[in-house]
Amino acid sequence: MGMRGGAHPTDSPRPPASSASVPTQLLCLEVAHPRPVSLLKAVLLGVGDGLPVQPRGPPGRAGRRGLGTSRGCVWEAAVMSAPEPGGGGLWPRCAQSKRGRGAARLPVVPPRPAPDPAPLPAGRGRRAQPQWAPPAGSEPCQLRLYNSLTRSKVSRARGGRGGSWESGASSQHRWYPSARPGALRSRPATLPLPATDIPHVAGAASGPCPGSVPAAELGGRRPAPPPPVTLFGDTRQSSLNPYDPLVAGGGGPGSDPHAFFPTKDVFVPQDGKRVTWYCCGPTVYDASHMGHARSYVSFDILRRVLRDYFKFDVFYCMNITDVDDKIIRRARQNYLFERYREKQPSAAQLLEDVHAALQPFAAKLKETTDPDKKQMLERLERAVTRAAEPLEEAVRASLAGEELDGRVQVLLAEAKDLLSDWLDSTHGSEVTDNSIFSQLPKFWEAEFHKDMEALNVLPPDVLTRVSEYVPEIVDFVQKIMDNGYGYASNGSVYFDTVKFANSEGHCYGKLVPEAVGDQRALQEGEGDLSISAERLSEKRSPNDFALWKASKPGEPSWPCPWGRGRPGWHIECSAMAGTLLGASMDIHGGGFDLRFPHHDNELAQSEAYFENDCWVRYFLHTGHLTIAGCKMSKSLKNFITIKDALKKHSARQLRLAFLMHAWKDTLDYSSNTMESALQYERFLNEFFLNVKDLLRAPGDVTGQFEKWEREETELNKCFYDKKAAVHEALCDNVDTRTALEEMRALVSQCNLYTAARKAARRRPNRALLASVANYLTHMLKIFGAIEEESPLGFPVGAPGTSLSLESTVMPYLQVLSEFREGVRSIAREHRVPEVLQLSDALRDDILPELGVRLEDHEGLPTVVKLVDRDTLLREREEKKRVSQPEGTWPGVC
């Protein structure tokens, strides 16, 4: 089959190899026709919408005009590492060229770094190849994540090595070791540090980490200089320059050669599309609260976006801390108090014990300096005193029977915390059964999983428990000691922070260097049971932390080479993550408050074990959660449990509230925050209901495809513009807040279009609105705000029931609506107001109780919507309240 119009597949120019900015995967299609534009589009729709393709003629005669049918043409579609929701590339939709009928000139991504075939000699049926360049603004976006572990300095003098970044015109940035510590190669002083100049991309002084990707392989494009960054603990803005003497080790706040600063990094996994991710799980000794929801819902959103939108193969591991000082103390206290209650102490004995417990409590109250905690302890003291007074009167009056027992139970309830702490201090060492310490975390772990399921948080691929990994932890500690970074002392093992920090190729305190030496934070990380004067004296340096703790009486213990003991807090995560993910992982996640000492200590001991400097490539920390502007803390008793929150708002509403805030920033859980989420949900839901009603309108198959006028063309352009804006927002640190705003703007345009069409008594284009609704549904599914089985829009009823409910009930409701419309028409014609009142009562009173909303529009068919019953009832009560005359009460004339 010959060519028409003088076009040939090889006439489409190819870009230079340097224009590729991300690793590319290829989909190759071999077709017999050299111009398979429509066929190619149909095939690629199954892979991804708008895939960039590259026609490549076969060798030999394939490069000439008059290609026969025996020779095929290979079309290559480049699947980018940051695809659109459908999974395809990021280039604009291809358009046919005007050069010849059906001939295609398609923008491309270079399929492979191999050079182009040599051009044919002049006069042999082929013209000179013009240089290809992508359209302005069409460069593919790359996913950038806010990484807490970005190296922004260039010298490693303190670690015994110096070096500099090579940032020449070729943009192939590399780290060059120097001959002497702290020395810098001579470079111009005007080049800012590029965003890709980071060890996990270009390699560090000790050589590239396993699986690291040179910056040149990221496309060769010189990125824009990074924006100014705010240093933690410092209000100054600092634009980092690798040749600035402060950065190079000349002193001052920017002189630390080992400093790491959080910034947005291009996300490049170590192994293609596979992502290894470890997340710090909860310490299970109490009910999960909204602080837990903030972290785990936010990480669930990030995980879903990476997996379902960017198409990464995410391996997600999370731990459960079931061995910890808090768990040990709480388990002992619960056990001792229940044993005390079972003994049924007499009223006189109970009063005596309460007074004995108040004495150390008063001393503790006097020593407390934190005003909030002091206020909480004072409230407890007043509550116990108030409960004790009636019992003391009953004892003096020699009361007996139920009245006395009732007052005893009241005092036991009010003094539970007081008595538990006192019993633990006097009898805690008598608790020796390890099973007592496992019952408490098992119960609260089960409750945690129930809460996560209620929040629609995906379960991890692997769940690790500390109690199940004790042998691996012991081996991990031993290896650290063998490498020279740990030492045994009085049955415990400590990490030698001084030796680690002074060793070649290592540094301590990468995440929060200014917190190194903060003894209050370090002691909090060690735990209340591990900060006695005896324990502190076992350390060589106050900054050293426990890898393994010798167990005291009343603590769980396991055998090890150093005597019976239990793991330290920080080593637990390192050993479990290292066992499953190896010497280097892509992502490590946790709450913002875990940065120091927990995550800094994790980094130190893991890099000491593996003897590397790249255990974690991207450290992601979710922001704090406050309650109405105040800090939330278990010790202050002002936290809201997840179960309490779900009694007031649905899991979708809570997730929307989180989506409307950046995952790394502080989120204020308040009535205003939740009202914004509720309004957004109602706004989208009304759009989905209107589209569903439009799609249910009768019509034949051909009626689904109506002629597009100017309005449809403009709305479709807005649709694609908003999709591009959503994609750009998600590439920018998974900015769901901006993405939701763009989706809101898209719905607003659809609503304006629909209203204008109805005002003109013309039916809106169903196919176009269905495409928008399906896209929004798809994005909300990716965000976890819609269950997977929902076909379009928010589901109705309980999860898993909406599909069968709507498909079963809606036909009957449609018949009922049509019957009611006919009855109303007859009643108007014959002026029968009683029938109209019954019809209104059916709409306003009866059907809302069943979760059905009827909307009457003059001159248009009645709209039937299946809505959540509670939502309709709240709307009905709100309408009654608004319509009630001011200054009157319902039912009062």
UniProtKB/TrEMBL annotation:
Q: Tell me one Pfam family matched here.
A: tRNA-synt_1e
- Domain tRNA synthetases class I catalytic stretches: 267-677
- Which GO CC annotations does the UniProt entry carry? cytoplasm
Swiss-Prot/TrEMBL GO biological process terms: cysteinyl-tRNA aminoacylation
Listed CDD domains: CysRS_core
- List cofactor names only: Zn(2+)
Catalytic activity, EC: 6.1.1.16
Asked if the Swiss-Prot or TrEMBL record annotates the protein with the keyword Zinc, the reply is: yes
Q: What does this protein do?
A: Catalyzes the ATP-dependent ligation of cysteine to tRNA(Cys).
- Region called Disordered, residue ranges: 1-21, 48-68, 99-139, 154-183
Identify the species of origin: Sus scrofa
Q: Does the keyword Metal-binding apply?
A: yes
Protein name, please?
Cysteine--tRNA ligase, cytoplasmic
Query: Which GO molecular function, any one, fits this protein according to its record?
Result: ATP binding
Compositionally biased residues, Pro residues = 108-120
Q: Which UniProt keywords apply?
A: Aminoacyl-tRNA synthetase, ATP-binding, Ligase, Metal-binding, Nucleotide-binding, Protein biosynthesis, Zinc
- Give TM regions: none
The reaction(s) this protein catalyses: tRNA(Cys) + L-cysteine + ATP = L-cysteinyl-tRNA(Cys) + AMP + diphosphate
